[in-house]
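job 3f2a | input accepted
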Amino acid sequence: MIKEILIYKEVVNEIYELIDKSTYKKNYAIEKVGISRSIFYRKLKTKSFTPDEILEIAKILCPDEFYMLEFIKEIEQAKNDINAGRIITHDKMLQKIKERNDKFLKDV
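job 3f2a | predicted structure (108 res):
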């Protein structure tokens, strides 16, 4: 756990440089984090971003890594669903899609 905390502190300490070197404008990061411009710059100066704010900034700076982690998480969830028997056959899925499309066309 200490290793992770030290890594987090390093990221927080380097966040200004990481944002500055990225191809994205700071305004885009401000918008994604969802805080005012003045608060963003204050947090940047004092290195006081919350973990959630750092995560939002990291998603911007490292989108490939973020999407890969999300993909791996979804694969693990799919494996858990299979192991727990939460599956549906291809034919049943096609039938559900057809029923949903038929209902949609009736409502239109």
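job 3f2a | DSSP finds six helices and no strands in the chain.
job 3f2a | closed
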